Prior knowledge:
- The model is unreliable at about 5-15 (pLDDT under 50).
- The chain is mostly beta strands.
- Helices cover about 5% and strands about 45% of the residues.
- It is built from 4 helices and 42 strands.
- The chain folds into 4 domains: about 1-30 and about 430-529, no CATH class; about 35-175, YVTN repeat-like/Quinoprotein amine dehydrogenase (Methylamine Dehydrogenase, Chain H), CATH 2.130.10.10; about 180-285, no CATH class; about 300-425, no CATH class.
- The strands form 11 sheets. The chain has a 4-stranded antiparallel beta sheet, with no helix packed on it.
- The longest helix has 11 residues, at about 10-20.
Amino acid sequence: MRNPSLNRYLPLAVALAACADRDPRYARSMESLAPVAAGSALVYVQPALARATVVDLTQETPTVRQVAVGADPVVVSARVAHDEALVLSRGERGSQGVAPAPATLSAITANGAARRWTLGSPFNAVAQDAAGRYAITYYNNSASAGRLLFNPNEVAVVDLDRPSGAANPVIRTVRSFGGVPNGVVFSPTMTVAGEPRTLAVVLSDAYVTLLDLNHPERSEVTVRLTLPEDARAVAPAQVVFDTDNATMYLRADQSNDLYVLRLVTVTPENATANDFRPALNQLAAGVRPADLALFGEANARKLLVVSPGSRDARVIDTVANTTTVVPLDAVANRVLLFNGPSPRSPAPALRALLYATAGVASAVSFVELTDIESRRSQNVETLQLGRITNQALALPERGVVMFGHPTSAMGSLSLLDLGRRTAAPIFSEAALENARFDDDRQALWVAPQSGQRLGFIELTNFRPGEIRLDAPIVDVIPVARGMARRVVALHDAPDGWITVVDGTDVTRERSRSLRGFLLTGLLDEGEAQ
């Protein structure tokens, strides 16, 4: 294995170790947030130094750059559908000799370029829409934001395609009925009041708040899911959007009903009023509904819902408002819709796989959706896997699902062929939660909890393999966007240690190791603190 380590940092590492015995600031300076991929680069963020280290993997020898970010960075995440990393920083409170600084959101590219938006308030969570156009920063449901006073219902809406300015981001406080945001989900582009819109749905206990991102100046719309005297914590857990009919379906904890919000066009009263209002309805969905999926033509939408509490699936006709109960032989809490053949019909058609995670079942159910209301259980085929399933990674475009099982003599993984409806065991020393797909879905990479071997499964022929590295692996990150397939194995080293593996020629000869890249300027910056 080639090892173009940054050897010039070795004396610095020795000096750092000596200094760390005397001053804990250096140990804090070495700590970094979990890295993320930004296209062809890895981005590490060191909170104590308020900087990001960008490891550009496009060249044979990676290029390392340092980029300043806002004070007190707390979150780093990959920007959706873009070759950038987003860094959320809470800013500086100010102290003797240190001026206060506002919270910021930074976008960093693989070549080290950076853009920054001033947020003002010390938010600690960020959510993005599916196109990577909008980000909303907010306070997650934690006890403290690190400030004497803060407004937990304040949010900032950032248009990531526009520079920071007077109208970007938009800072606002969402209406509250005593709760705080638990999360934010975004709608796909959907036509509302005759105009394409992207809506942000802020989830809180017992209510949701809708923000129109195309018209940020307009007021939010808040919908209560319970009556004022109802003390249940009906917390929204899933939102499914019907973009053709401007409707959203909500599943909530502590509720056996689904909530239907249909956005009805209205005439706005003024410039800051909305041109739609939600009409709320409820649909019975069994006991403890756990997952739902929408299918059917725009004028005949149906919901497929699994309810493990009543051990059934339900097909709800959203137009006729009728429900068909389909008994299941195996309890299920997940729904996967896929287009594919079956053993009885080679013609691709929309079908469903119902399965369970969290170790509650050892079988899965295939459902033929055509004529399901009349045929009910006759359209259900149960497949025994022989082992409890506790994890799943779905790859419907390739017609497979990978299941993880508790360790057993039959192996801890199995590969389910959706078309043939067969399951083959795969022996693995690693759990499925440590597995990652390539960006192009060519391979599945598996990192053990400890150990120096990186495993992989080629998804074109399902051939497994492994490669031995020079240190225990703590995580694996595929990086393939716009470049040859590469996978980065992370090693547990505070100075930064990675191994870059060629995803098309997985050999030690084609791999290379890089260590010490987090040390650049560390002593100088540590002394300045």
